[in-house]
Amino acid sequence: MQRFYVKNIDPSDRSFILNGDIVRQLRSVLRFESGSHIRLFDGSGHEWEVEIDHISKTEIAATLIAAVKPSVSPSINVTMLLGLAKPERIEFAIQKCTELGATEFIPVISERVQGSKTGAPSQKRLVRWQRIAIEAAEQCGRVSVPTVQPSTLLMDAVCKILDSQPLFCMWEEISEQTQSLKTALRNIPKAQSEIAMLIGPPGGFTPNEVASMVKVGANLVTLGERVLRSETAAIAVLSATLYESGDLGD
Fold first, then answer.
1. Which 3 state secondary structure label does DSSP give 101?
2. Strand-pair partners of 179
3. pTM here?
4. Which domain holds residue 29?
5. Could you say which of 50, 68, 86 is where a domain stops?
6. What is the pLDDT of residue 209?
7. What pLDDT does 44 receive?
8. What pLDDT, in 10s, does the model give residues 56-96?
9. What's the farthest any 2 CA atoms get from each other in the chain?
10. Which of 43, 81, 137, 188 has a Cα at 20 to 30 A from 94?
């Protein structure tokens, strides 16, 4: 059954009107008709089955049929800090990490930023990235949608994250300060419910950036001798994290 994200659903009002992009998608793209059933979720952790009563050019009248048992969210909330790269790389990482279960995305601006002259994505680009997260949540069965935050300077993002949770920085260099991803994940306390993973931009972080992050408490993690593209590293790190926590079919 097709699933759609709709903000602020009031389950006490069984009859309601849908408008906006969902009307065009259901009417013109999917060609749904009166009597069709769909599922709606609003990001609050709930999901409902809905029957379409009437479709016009601008709105859809629908009736809430029943609440649906939602899929279980991962036991650990993972924030993904993504070093800015070409837009298509960030988009791919957001889509796949949303499917896996990421909670939040923070684009970070570092010295080796890639993707635009200023490094910071436009508001239009951020809206597109949020839409990609919504569509990925619709497709994969999630009832929550990860938030795509505005881009942030690297050290500002690192310090803010470290105020509330541990941060693991993926670094391609191997030194006495780095630990393997396996070791890092297995040292996370079972009671820890929030962690953050930092993926560098193409070209990685500079030595000065790494030193600054270590100084404020970030953990350096190596993914081995093979150098991964930034979007590949994001997917690999999140997959390993959720596997270790038992959230990939324990």
1. coil
2. 221
3. 0.88
4. 3-68
5. 68
6. 95
7. 83
8. 989 999 999 999 887 777 889 999 999 999 999 999 999 99
9. 65
10. 188
Contacts of residue 82, defined as CB under 8 A and 6 or more positions apart, other chains included, come to 90, 93, 94, 105, 106, 107, 108, 199, 230, 234
Spatial contact of 121 and 93, defined as CB atoms under 8 Å apart: no
pLDDT per residue as tens digits for the range 21-44: 889 889 888 888 899 999 999 888
d(CA 56, CA 43): 26
Q: Give the residues across from 48 on adjacent strands.
A: 40, 67
Distances (CA, A) of 189 to 81, 108, 184: 21, 27, 10
Question: Domain check: are 58 and 82 in the same one?
Answer: no
Rounded to whole angstroms, how far apart are CA atoms 176 and 39?
A: 51
Quote the CA–CA distance of 146 and 102 in Å, as a whole number.
7
Residues 172, 222 within the same domain: yes
Q: Do 97 and 58 fall into the same domain?
A: no
Q: How many residues does the chain have?
A: 250
Half-sphere exposure of 8 (CA within 13 A, CB side): 3
Domains identified in the chain, total number = 2
Give Cα 181 distance to the centre of its chain. 20
Q: Alpha carbon 12 to chain centroid distance? A: 30
